[in-house]
Design a protein that fits this description.
Strand order of the largest sheet of chain B: 1-2
Strand order of the largest sheet of chain A: 1-2
Radius of gyration of chain B: 38 Å
Number of helices of chain B: 32
Oligomer: heterodimer
Helix content of chain B: over 70%
Distance between the termini of chain B: 51 Å
Largest sheet of chain A: 2 strands, antiparallel
Strand content of chain A: under 5%
Number of helices of chain A: 21
Shape of chain B: elongated
Number of strands of chain A: 2
Helix content of chain A: over 70%
Structural class of chain B: mainly alpha
Structural class of chain A: mainly alpha
Shape of chain A: globular
Radius of gyration of chain A: 23 Å
Number of strands of chain B: 2
């Protein structure tokens, strides 16, 4: 890393700029964001070239995946990686930092997005292409990646905004009335949460006088307790709403089942996880004292969310709404990790997030294929797919068990880590609720399986009659819908069988969040000590 | 690098000795992957071909018999998750070897049997896959050393069992039974997970061999009782002990090979395996004794009594299985050498005769089309081989001399017969339970075959070789075992008893019928009681049935009530929380917000000082008054358009204050925003055809106003307390100093926007781009093909389910 400026000494200025060029390899921190932004602009310009849209979007997301893989390897090798924009010294410029947490989230998100890019070809008609599905998808990915990689709290807010507007756009594509209704609820509650986030930033700036996350992490220990607690509480609340944690989560089940399946999958995989990520980043890395004081509140939120999520799924007859409630249950698990605030808790949470991003995206996509075969979203009128489509059945049953955290699938490992964290902390409420969440998820998801796949026909007296409203998947749906979903589920299965590197990464992520010396020194490398 | 690993030495195993053990658990899964293809290639021979896999495993395991008898423990470990201290590790001692041989040996016959039983079934390939996957899970479970590896296989047996019980998926009863089994055993699995983690955290060991080296210390730990209860819940759920027993009879919805294999001979014994395995680690305490003996004894009687009540062959067998599992649990609760040896002998005997009798029941069903014992009779000439197999099974089940069942019963009676209370009480329980099960077994072996031939749905016929080879061989083995007691002592009881009791066992089982031995009198009592029950079978059945009807409640009904209750509760809660009314969601959000703002101040006692009364000029006061007037007007005005204008007035006044206090950039931005807001809001008002007046009741408006005021004053108070801190101005100073010389701009705000924090601006620009695309999409799509009303030109509906 370059050293601070000395040539302005004549002007009697403080050290202000980083001298020397940033090593090209270090630019990798901004590549995932820059590529997405560039790609979105490009696709807007190419809006009349319909056939090119999906190809370009796919290539760009692929490039983002490659960048993220490289970034992850760098972080694995050398610890957190930082780059400050405009060569201003941190904390004056905006710093991008990739630590293990950010890199893992960013990589999982881009992988999920890539599958969705392909799947979307199945279901988007011409209008949606023209009106910007792919540019909006890339902008969403840009906002999501930016959120994961920025090291500046106000800049995080900016990426939240990008994400929010892009998601709003995706939500209303297609313009059916139910979509507008869902989008209104989604929009209002999320705009409010984002505004609260901004207000919390303002308070935090008033308390610490800086916006750089690493700088805040250094300074927050000395911050006065009262205002710090208020700011932490506001952050928790804002991120809680964004993450769809109890109590202000009604927007999610109202909105997530209304758009195209590809959009649902993208949202279910990515969006709520950004809220949870921000909660981890802010409350663990930046304001640990705030997290400690808020622990009973986070516990209550986690417990309620973990229970009410799968309960909601149990009560649904709409498949995608049921999956939406499972998304909420998963958020509860992430907040459980936050409650523990130990290496097992945070590490388990980060690994759970990776699992949740991939598994829920896949779950929505499989749900979408089921909807296409049965022509309805209503579980009562599905049925009989087990006999008709073996691959889809296998995918669904794998996801059922993965969601519930049953072995040998990916969901098991974070569950074990979190339960062990709870046992080590002697926190029996968390342990009990985690296990209960797992059981309720299992009940809800296995009932879905029994109704959609095992039952031959529609619900009711003639349920043993074959379901005559089923149709087979077209070759397009198999090639562009089923095949990428199989690839994603295969990835989930492989990660479940060989979770070693992921668990190791989770361990690194937790250490760097809990003891952020490496993070801070990566950001301030080269800044003269005053 | 290890991140979550345990500290103890047991986290990693020593050098591996034989990797073929790991292969034993993996091979059936590989076979499962190709089973459907093998089925389509080999057709009717598929059962024979696929049986090569378990047969080979059986042969491989046989090679371990001699080393294990010489007290060698064979281990193998592959690195799996070193960062968490989890290895894919296995070990073979007497106990795991016995289970491994039973699983692969009976599995061989079951696979052959399935080939005949499900011949022509469209999903026979899938069936073989599930079966082999189950076999691999079960083998992995009993061979695993690492407790997490064990847990993985434990849960896999639940999963495969779920798929197998629901195999006949078009029937509602099968689906229900599958979910019920999954829920019960899944819940047990979760308890087991917690118990295992608790043990590993408390001991620092996460392998069974590691835990066994610490045998006797866990009982001293403060978490002992909790760990014990959690582990036992897992074991009881799996091994169907009362009160978790009800799923097992329902699991008989599965095809008969599944019932024979999973739900009598192997899977349900996983809990017994776990209890036996944990005996040295968790056993030997009063808690252990009383929990196991009481629940085991209760299950034994429960199963025995209800077995006699049934008329369906499979149901009779299912309930006797319950009884047998209870018996095993009870004996392990005693934990003495004789009790353990009795349990081992009985476990083997039970696997042979129960597996065989289930296959017999399947053959009868296959050959006649019914399994109702009251509708069957006189089949001895039509199904002669099946009859022989049934008699052999029942002979061992009844515990007549020379059969393995006899040896087992003698040994377990011997364990109790010399004691006082409570041993004699449990001896009585044992005798009663054994008599009931004996009666059930003999009824199955005689009732369908003797007497006059009764008409059945099919013309009765013997099944092919696949259907009878298994039961006959198992029956012969069970009956003739008494002739090989020396071999059993040396190769089976000594090493297995050693595993369970954790010290060397020298077994001296021998075949004798010595009336001086009180255990023989217990056997005689059992036979007498059993004979009496058979004699009065119909009376006993109707008596039990009447009692059951009088009670009118079963655990099964209770489970249903629980599930429906859960779903109703879930429905109600979800409807309450997700009512679909946006205004309530927002009200909730702001109410919580007010709490978030005020509560920290109250808790930490850090309310800000009252601000000093400001000294302001008259025009500054004027601006503030205008803003305040605008605010109050918003709260009070009922005409929406006027309220919008009032909002604008308030905004302009605030902008004016910005201007007066030295922030002209901000002020001009605010003027723009306010102007646009008023114009757009007014336009939207007219376009949306909203009511001109606010339709809220006064109380509602008061409530909303109160929440708004609470949240807003909360913000103000928090702001006040932040302002009373010393503001760190280092950023401001830096911008002041460097803006001109380094960034070459005089307007710091502009420089911040385009240089210091330019990437924020880039982000905001992309927000505008996204908003543009979204708006374009909304506006243009409105004119699309009109299958449904599109766009926002009408008031949107309030409720949606």
């Amino acid at each position: 890393m370059a050293t601070a400026a000395t040539s302005y000494d004549a002007l009697n200025l403080p050290p202000a700029m980083i001298e020397g060029a940033t090593a090209p390899a270090d630019w990798i921190v901004v590549w995932p964001v820059a590529l997405a932004l560039f790609g979105a602009g490009l696709l807007v310009m190419l809006r009349n070239q319909r056939p090119l849209q999906s190809v370009f979007a796919g290539l760009i997301v692929l490039a983002i995946i490659v960048s993220n893989v490289y970034l992850l390897l760098r972080v694995f090798e050398a610890g957190p990686l930082a780059m400050t924009m405009g060569k201003w010294l941190p904390p004056f410029g905006i710093t991008f930092v990739a630590d293990m947490t950010g890199a893992l989230f960013a990589l999982s998100a881009s992988v999920a997005a890539f599958i969705v890019v392909i799947f979307a070809k199945v279901e988007l008609d011409g209008r949606e292409y023209r009106f910007g599905f792919y540019p909006l998808l890339l902008l969403l990915l840009c906002g999501v990646s930016g959120s994961f990689l920025t090291g500046d709290i106000f800049n995080l807010y900016v990426w939240f905004e990008v994400m929010l507007i892009a998601s709003f756009g995706l939500l209303i594509l297609g313009g059916r009335r139910i979509q507008i209704d869902g989008a209104v609820k989604y929009g209002f509650l999320n705009f409010l949460a984002t505004a609260l986030f901004l207000i919390a930033i303002a308070y935090l700036y008033g308390i610490t006088g800086t916006l750089n996350m690493a700088d805040i992490a250094r300074k927050s220990a000395e911050a006065p307790v009262g205002p710090l607690l208020t700011a932490s509480g506001l952050f928790l609340f804002a991120f809680g709403v964004k993450a769809a944690a109890f109590p202000a989560n009604a927007w999610l089940p109202a909105a997530y089942h209304t758009p195209a399946v590809a959009v649902s999958a993208l949202f279910g995989g990515l969006l709520t996880k950004v809220g949870a990520y921000a909660a981890y980043r802010v409350l663990v890395l930046m304001l640990p004292a705030g997290r400690d004081m808020l622990e009973p509140v986070i516990l209550a939120v986690a417990v309620a969310t973990m229970i009410l999520g799968p309960l909601g799924a149990l009560a649904q007859t709409n498949l995608r709404r049921a999956i939406g409630f499972l998304v909420i249950g998963g958020i509860g698990v992430l907040f459980a990790g936050l409650t523990l605030g130990t290496q097992h808790g945070i590490g388990g949470g980060v690994i759970y997030a990776v699992h949740s991003i991939l598994t829920l995206t896949a779950f929505y996509l499989v749900g979408g294929l089921v909807e296409r075969m049965s022509g309805t979203q209503d579980i009562r009128y599905m049925g009989g797919i087990y006999t008709v489509n073996a691959p889809l059945s296998i995918l669904f049953i794998i996801l059922v068990f993965a969601m519930a955290g049953l072995p040998p699938f990916l969901g098991l490992w974070p569950k074990i880590l979190l339960v062990e964290g709870g046992v080590r902390a002697g926190d029996w409420v968390i342990v009990t609720t985690l296990l209960l969440n797992s059981l309720l998820t299992l009940i809800a998801a296995s009932r879905l399986w029994a109704h959609i796949f095992w039952r031959n026909g529609h619900e009711g007296a003639r349920s043993e009659q074959p379901n005559d409203t089923l149709r087979r998947l077209t070759s397009d749906e198999v090639g562009l819908g089923l095949a990428p979903t199989i690839a994603l589920v295969a990835l989930i299965v492989v990660l479940g069988f060989f979770p070693n590197w992921l668990i190791e990464a989770g361990g690194v992520a937790a250490i760097d969040l809990l003891e952020p010396e490496r993070y801070i020194s990566a950001v301030f490398a080269g800044v003269p000590q005053s | 690098m290890r991140f979550f690993g345990l500290d103890g030495p047991g986290a990693e195993l020593g050098p591996s000795l034989d990797f073929s053990i790991a292969l034993i658990a993996v091979a059936p899964f590989l076979a499962a992957l190709v089973a459907p293809w093998i089925k389509s290639f080999t057709g009717a021979l598929a059962g024979w071909v696929l049986a090569i896999v378990p047969a080979a495993i059986f042969a491989l395991l046989l090679t371990f018999v001699t080393p294990v008898a010489e007290n060698t423990v064979v281990k193998a470990a592959l690195p799996w998750i070193p960062s968490y201290g989890i290895s894919f590790s296995f070990f073979i001692d007497g106990l795991s070897l016995m289970f491994g041989l039973l699983i692969s040996g009976i599995g061989t016959f079951i696979v052959i049997y399935s080939g005949g039983y499900l011949a022509g079934h469209p999903h026979q390939g899938r069936f073989f896959s599930y079966m082999l996957m189950f076999m691999g899970s079960m083998l992995g479970l009993v061979l695993a050393d690492n407790i997490f590896t064990l847990f993985v296989f434990w849960e896999l047996t639940s999963i495969t069992s779920f798929l197998l019980i629901g195999f006949d998926h078009s029937r509602q009863a099968a689906r229900r039974a599958a979910i019920q089994a999954l829920v019960v055993t899944g819940a047990g699995g979760l308890a087991l997970l917690a118990g295992l983690i608790l043990m590993s955290v408390a001991s620092g060991e996460n392998s069974l061999t590691g835990l066994l080296t610490q045998a006797g210390t866990m009982q001293e730990q403060p978490v002992y009782l909790l760990a014990l209860i959690l582990v036992l819940i897992g074991a009881f759920a799996k091994s169907a002990q009362v009160p978790f027993h009800f799923w097992l009879p329902n699991a008989m919805e599965a095809p008969t090979p599944v019932s024979a294999y999973l739900h009598s001979a192997t899977m349900v014994k996983a809990g017994v395996y776990l209890i036996a395995r944990m005996s040295p680690v968790l056993g030997g305490t009063p808690e252990w004794f009383w929990i196991l003996t009481l629940f085991g004894g209760l299950t034994l009687l429960w199963g025995g009594v209800l077995a006699v009540r049934q008329t369906d062959l499979k149901q009779i067998l299912a309930y006797t299985t319950l009884g047998s599992l209870g018996l095993l649990v009870m004996l392990l609760g005693f934990g003495t050498k004789e009790a353990v040896l009795g349990a081992i002998l009985y476990l083997c005997a039970h696997s042979f005769f129960k597996g065989g009798l289930f296959m017999v029941a399947g053959a009868i069903d296959h050959g006649t089309g019914t399994r109702d014992i009251t509708a069957l009779g006189g089949l001895r000439e039509h199904l002669p081989v099946t009859f022989i197999a049934a008699v052999l099974g029942a002979f061992s089940m009844a515990g007549f001399p020379i059969a393995l069942g006899f040896l087992a019963k003698e040994e377990m009676y011997l364990a109790l017969v010399h004691g006082l209370w409570p041993d004699l009480f449990f001896l009585a329980v044992l005798i009663a339970g054994n008599a009931l099960m004996m009666a059930a077994g003999i009824l199955i072996a005689t009732k369908p075959f003797l007497g006059p031939l009764k008409p059945t749905p099919h013309e009765p016929h013997e099944g092919g070789l696949p259907l009878w080879i298994g039961p006959v061989i198992l029956g012969v083995m069970g009956v003739s075992a008494g002739l090989f007691t020396d071999w059993i002592n040396h190769y089976a009881l000594n090493p297995i008893g050693g595993s369970v009791t954790n010290h060397a066992v020298d077994a001296h089982i021998h075949l004798a019928f010595d009336l001086a031995n009180p255990a023989v009198w217990a056997s005689l009592a059992t036979w007498a009681l059993g004979a009496a029950i058979i004699w009065q079978a119909d009376a006993v059945r109707s008596a039990v049935r009447r009692t059951g009807q009088a009670i009118g409640w079963t655990f099964d009904i209770g489970f249903d009530a629980l599930m429906f209750g859960l779903i109703r509760f879930a429905d109600r809660v979800t409807r309450t929380l997700h009512h679909g009314r946006l205004e309530w969601y927002i009200l909730l959000l702001f109410s919580v917000l007010a709490v978030v703002l005020y509560a920290p101040m109250l808790i930490t006692g850090t309310a800000p000082r009252m601000a000093e009364f400001p000294v302001l000029s008259f025009y500054e006061w004027g601006a503030i008054l205008i803003a305040a007037a605008g605010l109050i007007a918003i709260l009070l005005l009922r005409t929406r358009l006027t309220a919008i204008v009032a909002l604008g007035i308030q905004g302009f006044a605030v902008a004016l204050i910005f201007l007066l206090f030295g922030a002209p950039d901000l002020a001009f931005t605010q003027f723009m925003v306010e102007t646009l807001s008023v114009v757009i809001l007014a336009l939207v008002m007219t376009r949306l055809h909203l009511d001109a007046r606010d339709p809220r009741e006064f109380e509602v408006a008061l409530r909303d106003g109160a929440v708004a005021v609470a949240a807003a004053t909360g913000f103000a108070v928090v702001l006040l307390s932040v302002l009373q801190l010393d503001l760190d101005l280092s950023l401001t100073e830096f911008f002041n100093e460097t803006s001109r010389p380094l960034a070459h701009g005089r307007n710091i705000v502009n420089v911040i926007l385009v240089d210091y924090r330019a990437i924020d601006t880039l982000g905001e620009i992309s927000v505008v781009m996204a908003a543009g695309i979204a708006i374009m999409a909304l506006v243009r799509l409105k004119g699309g093909d009109g299958d449904t009303p599109r766009g926002i030109s009408r008031p949107t509906e309030r409720r949606r389910t």
